[in-house]
Design a protein that fits this description.
alpha+beta; 3-stranded mixed sheet; 3-stranded antiparallel sheet; 6 helices; 6 strands; 49% helix
Length: 188
Amino acid sequence: YAKIRVHTSDSDEYFEKQRKRQMSDETQDEAVQPDEEFERKIIEYSDKLVSLMGIAGKTSVIFREKRKLGLNIASADSSFIIGRKGKTLDSIQLIISIYAMQLGKDDIRILLDCENYRVRREENLVRTAYSVAAKVRESRSSVLLEPMNPFDRRIIHTALSDIADVDTKSEGTGQYKQVRVFYKVPHR
């Protein structure tokens, strides 16, 4: 068993840009006052939902922003909560978001995580994006990636947005579309 960590200058630049962007977003937002009653209800609802799935888990708030509430579910059965490619986690997040709307908080976006899955997924997607971009540049063709949710597609689009001779576009219909990474002749 071995762990391998790969770093490329492009992905390091991407993550540094994201950190700077997040820091500037945080300083622009006014201080967020927690709505304790709303958060209590959301946490109770999440815990109950996970319990109904037959899984023991505990939900907690991991961050608050102006229009976002980050939650984490801690569980010994995290793989069941995350599901294949995060689809179960996405579904739980959607259900909790609908409940938040029923509580009158349709302006707050609920972001749910478990075992830092979202961070690991983002890092993996960025590495994949740069790897595919390198292949596209070399072959001067295009590559169609697997179907992804809107959050994952946005990560691919953002990661490759600063590469002059590579572009991206989403293809397909519905929630899970595919991203095509293609070569474009740079303007001179």
